[in-house]
Amino acid sequence: MSSRLKTFLAGFALLFCVTAFSARDGYDVFVPIAKYIGQGDADKLSAWFADNLEITVMSMTSDSSRNQAKQILKNFFDNHTPRSFEIIHMASRSNSKYALGQLNAGGEVFIVTIFVSSSKDSFKIQQLKIERMR
Fold first, then answer.
1. Closest CA to 69 of 47, 53, 85
2. What are the beta bridge partners of residue 57?
3. pTM for this prediction
């Protein structure tokens, strides 16, 4: 094998490892979460919920089980059908990630805050907050 080919393959392997690490440690966790919020799919979104999480919908905060939070979100989506959702800011620190998004639903605009924690290769929503934009 030529040295040029070896160098190319080594570079490609390094790029693949960095990309895979970035995807696992980067923002990819918010892609499906944002998709399900934008679709108003509380069932699929709840698969990302921790067993117990804090959920706030329009100033009503509740420490809830996964099923309770799913029901709260389902009620919100029933009354505010999503038209679009966009992540506008993300940040991370050690084993937690944060996203801020804008939800257009039911003719109103909401700010959505999502806190996600990771353990091993699993991500779970620990806190979800939906507030009317002022």
1. 53
2. 60, 130
3. 0.78
